[in-house]
Amino acid sequence: MQAYLGWWILAAVLVGVELTSGTFYLLVYGVAAAVAGVAAWLGAGMVVQLLTAAVIGAAGTLALRHWKRSTDRPEFNAQDMDIGQTVQIESWQGDHGQVKYRGALWDAEAESADVDSTRPLVIRAIKGNMLVLGNLSGEK
Questions:
Q1: Which of 113, 114, 137, 3 is closest to 123 using CA atoms?
Q2: Per-residue confidence of the chain (140 residues) as pLDDT tens digits?
């Protein structure tokens, strides 16, 4: 078997596996293997093929890491969309109870002892599956 065929088979396998992982790293390595296969097809020696794959793989990995760091938003959390939303009280005793939010019953606790459960409550934070509630701004 010709060397370029081996590189292209490796590239196809890496890209195929990438389709199941979604990380893009295997896609970078698949492209590196494909380019090394082109180098082999053009008659380059094994050292040139390996260097081509290594340089493209390393450059692609660094570029991908830079892109991922620039697009990561660790300060954003999907739960942040719930903060400030009003809930309906189903039952409340002391500073704990159950509330209805988005069609489901949630366990809830008051954010402080000053929370008045007879007034409208909003989500202030989420701790696991527990909603932390407070009164609307300006109300106590």
A1: 137
A2: 899 999 999 999 999 999 998 889 999 999 999 999 999 999 999 999 999 999 999 999 999 999 988 877 666 566 678 888 999 999 999 889 999 998 889 999 999 888 888 888 999 988 888 999 999 875 44
Q: List residues bridging with 105 in a β-sheet.
A: 100
User: What is the distance, to the nearest Å, from the Cα of residue 46 to the centroid of all Cα atoms in its chain?
Assistant: 39
Domains of the chain and CATH, by start: 3-71 (no CATH), 78-135 (2.40.50.140)
Structure tokens at 92: 């409340």
The Cα–Cα gap between 51 and 67 comes to 24
CA–CA distance from 7 to each of 23, 40, 102, 113, 118 (Å)?
Answer: 21, 8, 52, 67, 70
